[in-house]
User: Fold this.
Amino acid sequence: MKTLYHDGDTALHRLSPRVKLIGLAVTSVVLFWLHSPVALGIAAFASIIVFSTLKLKWSEIRRQLRPLVVTLGLVCLFTLAFNGSADALTVFLRLGSLMLLAAAVTATTGIGDFIDEITLAAMPLERLGILRAADVGLAIGLVIRFVPEVVSRYKTIREAHLARGLRPRPLTVAVPLIILTLRSADEIAAAIDARGIRRQK
Amino acid sequence: MSTRDLVLSALFAAIIIALGLLPPIMLGFVPVPITAQSLGVMLAGVVLGARRGTIAVLLVLVVAAIGLPVLSGGRGGLAVFAAPTTGYLIGWVFAALVTGLLSEKLVNRDQMAIAQTVGFFIAAVAGGVIVLYACGISYLAVVTGLGFQKAFFGSMAFIPGDVIKAVVAALAGRAVMVGYPLLPQRA
Assistant:
């Protein structure tokens, strides 16, 4: 699993993650407040300029944007067919700019930086006793660590089906996959507690 | 939250992500490809219950937001939260919550097998179809200015696939409960 972060040293890379995230949030509010096609057109142009300062290669741009362009394109076509060209253009410019800016923030902010920001943002919740801020990073790390494990278990179960001449079906694959994966929870939890990572009991 | 619950949620988040890596399948009578990822959301509620299931789904969304392409079709990054279909992603959280709450209410270990399966199916449809589409369609209608009726019309093609997923989730949920019971929540 390759992250969408792209190593580099552009102005956006150097900007603090907090500034980028707050900037993105403010921009999204402004974009939904704007209604004139001209203003939205200018916003879209500005977004393209911001994205182009990243100086990404074409192959990288494709990887970042392709799945999003497909969704946006489909919804715009649907809007065009049912609500006419004015609405479709507004949707295209507004969401297009927002997605481009969001992709720019993702491409220039490392996962560690994001986790730090989330942990900081979770501090007020910790004070309310809802969660422990440090758990967020731990949980994200666990998820990333175990995705390849689950995928390899899936392959094993599939092969076991094929070896017995059975067709792998969603149900007959999902059940052993879930039970096998969740059964390891006790061991992992014990390992975490034994290392004192969460500093409790 | 106990360490075990935290790990269970994280492992389930990994299962949901892995389901998104499988190629989408076409069913004969549904005109759109269906992915297994939203099946994972229903399963989270059915298997883990409301609290841990919701946290599992939240973890998937956080991992996607920080730039890992973990959503079906290799989508990820903050841009997926700026898309017209973002409502469905936000809806996942409430889908897992409602599926989990209803599973805890409707199903217990002393029931007959058929009652358990039906209970899980009702929970999966209420959360993974009704609540999910209510969120997704409202967001789509407001963001694109389409209006509710047209947004509903545009989403209709996906509903049969999701009802089938609810059936799979119900059967799998019961099978997991027999093999490795996690409901009702202990913590």
Notes: Chain B touches chain A through 62 residues (CB under 8 Å). The CA atoms of residues 45 and 82 of chain B lie 26 Å apart.
